[in-house]
Amino acid sequence: MERVVVAESSVLSLAPHIVFRFDDTRSRWIIMAPERLMLPDEQAVEILQLVDGTAGVGEIIDSLARRYTQAPRALIAKDVVAMLQDLADKGCLVDAGPH
Amino acid sequence: MPARIDPPLALLAELTHRCPLRCPYCSNPVELERAASELSEEDWCRVFREAAALGVLQVHFSGGEPMARRDLAALIAEASRHGLYGNLITSGTLGGEREIEAFAQAGLKHVQLSFQDIEPAGGDRIAGLKGAHVRKTSFAAAVRAVDLPLTLNMVVHRQNLEHLQGMIDMALALGARRLEIAHVQYYAWALINRDALLPSRRQLDEATALVEAAQARLKGVLAIDYVVPDYHGVRPKSCMNGWARRFLNITPSGTAVPCHAAETLPGIDFPSVRDSSLADIWYRSDAFNRFRGTDWMPEPCRGCDRREIDWGGCRCQAFLLTGDASRADPVCALSPDHGLVTAALQQAEGMPPDLVYRQFRQDRAQGA
């Protein structure tokens, strides 16, 4: 098993056993993984909703940069890559092939 | 009782106490429940429906060996139909490809497979079952063949701790993404065998250093969860993250408890899913409110700034070591009973006695 290294050229999708859904009881988004529950913050939820197995990480950053014009793209890129790398290291994301 | 009670996150479904293994540290109670008293398939289906409605997110199918139940695939299907995230906790000794394929079809999300050591001689000796290790190895391959994520669970103690590096290598070789290295916790059968299992301070420190190095090296490849033996700690573990705060456990016969060892506590009338709804059990039963929050706490817990971090430690451990479940966990260095733990640790520096294997009570009487 190789470590997934996240870069702007990566195309990612949720690992098949990961469930990312809205929990009606707690009125919030949750990520369910083997024997753990993660509670993504608003920013993470917004990013994860763009992870679909076809969009490249660079494109995800672009679309967030268009939405949040007050933040420089480089700063958004740094946050997005760090957040996705963290989820990849927790086994939540897999490489969906070259862009 | 706290003003606000959050809904439970996870349900441990102990489907049966039947198991082909006889591990001397088994976390099942010393009084094992027999097959005739087990809940029916319909009972369990109702429990899963109610659990989902209550806000439970994950279900752990456990035992005993849950694969001893012929209706396991049906139970997994029912739980996933209600959006519950299903995890199978198994010894991998009662089935293979055909079963695991059916479980995957039914919506199972993850398998946690136990190993007792890294090779057949040691593994079969601890499991008390010939051929166990080889069967487990093929079970791991069957899990990976249907692309289910695999966690290896290794319970470690002074008799297998020297194989720690081999355990990590084995997890990688079997395609696991997670490895749980859990030191034995001293309840039930493990408490009977404490002096044969508790590692010395030096063994523990070497093991911890090895695990920490591997965690850094294998980041993103193999996640290693490490549970230290709380006897060697200074502060108690946050047992179950607090009594009835996140978890509930249903025993094979339907008794609801806040953790799998709680039935050993005397004077508490634990409710049954046979005659109470899960909502009544969680929010309103005396048993689940008994040690909830911080109001029940004695000193030194009551005035401690960690009272909402470790929640007074473990109620079962307090009872098993002091005879009173409402005392501070003796593992805590601030507990007036801490000397009981220090004495056991001194014992661990010497030679271990023989193991006592788990079995149903009748057999135990014959063996005695």
Shape field of chain B: globular
Largest sheet: spatial strand order of chain A: 2-3-4
List the quaternary state of the chains: heterodimer
State the separation between the terminal residues of chain B, measured CA to CA.
Answer: 44 Å
What structural category do the secondary elements of chain B indicate?
alpha/beta
Helix count of chain B, per DSSP?
Answer: 14
**Beta-strand percentage range of chain B:** 5-15%
Strand runs of chain A, count = 5
Overall residue-averaged pLDDT value of chain B: 92
Mean pLDDT of chain A: 93
Mind explaining what this structure looks like?
The complex is a heterodimer of chains A (99) and B (368). Chain A has 99 residues and is α+β, with helices and mostly antiparallel strands. Chain A contains three helices and five strands, in the order E-E-E-E-H-H-H-E. Chain A has helices at 42-48, 57-67, 73-89, and strands spanning 12-14, 19-23, 28-33, 36-38, 93-95. A three-stranded antiparallel sheet of chain A has the order 2-3-4, with no helix packed on it. In chain A, strands 1-5 form a two-stranded antiparallel ribbon. The longest helix of chain A has 17 residues, at 73-89. Chain B has 14 helices and nine strands. Chain B has helices at residues 41-54, 72-81, 97-105, 120-127, 132-145, 164-173, 188-192, 194-197, 201-217, 278-284, 286-289, 315-322, 339-347, 361-367, and strands at 10-14, 58-62, 85-90, 110-115, 150-156, 178-183, 223-227, 247-250, 256-257. In chain B, helix 1 links the parallel strand 1 (10-14) and strand 2 (58-62). Chain B is globular, with a radius of gyration of 20 Å. At the A-B interface, strand 2 of A face loops of B.
